[in-house]
Amino acid sequence: MPHVIVKLWPGKTEKQKKQLADGITQSVMRTLNYGEESVSVAFEEIEPDEWAEKVYQPDIVNNAKSLYKKPGYTM
Questions:
Q1: Which of 17, 58, 64, 65 is the most buried if burial means most Cβ atoms within 10 Å?
Q2: Among 2, 10, 48, 71, the one annotated catalytic
Q3: What is the CA radius of gyration of the chain?
Q4: pTM above the 0.85 mark?
Q5: Distance between alpha carbon 29 and the CA centroid of its chain, in Å?
Q6: Which domain, by its residues, includes 35?
Q7: How far apart are CA 23 and CA 2, in angstroms?
Q8: Is 75 contained in some domain?
Q9: CATH number for 28
Q10: Is 71 tagged catalytic?
Q11: DSSP string, 3-37
């Protein structure tokens, strides 16, 4: 605990995914005060033509109230 799932389009290298997983792990450890042994990170590659059906609608639109960072440029 916690387990982070990153959904993204295919095409990123193993090096990029490893770097992102390491960054997420470090951020979770620093922010939530968990040890590295408590954090897991997974990647799910979703084809662009399936993104709306498999990610945007169910995970973003249908769960908008639970999003802490919504799509777009508002930070």
A1: 17
A2: 2
A3: 14
A4: yes
A5: 16
A6: 3-66
A7: 14
A8: no
A9: 3.30.429.10
A10: no
A11: EEEEEE-S---HHHHHHHHHHHHHHHHHHH---GG
pLDDT tens for 12-71 read 999 999 999 999 999 999 999 999 999 999 999 999 999 999 999 999 999 999 999 999
Residue with the two structure tokens 């033509």? 49
Structure-token pair, residue 42: 């997974």
73 domain residue, yes or no: no
Pull the structure tokens for residue 57. 């609608």
Q: How many helices (H) and strands (E) does the chain have?
A: 2, 2
Cα-based distances in Å from 57 to 7, 20, 41: 13, 24, 22
Task: Tell me how many domains the chain contains.
Answer: 1
25 lies in some domain: yes
Quote the CA–CA distance of 59 and 11 in Å, as a whole number: 21
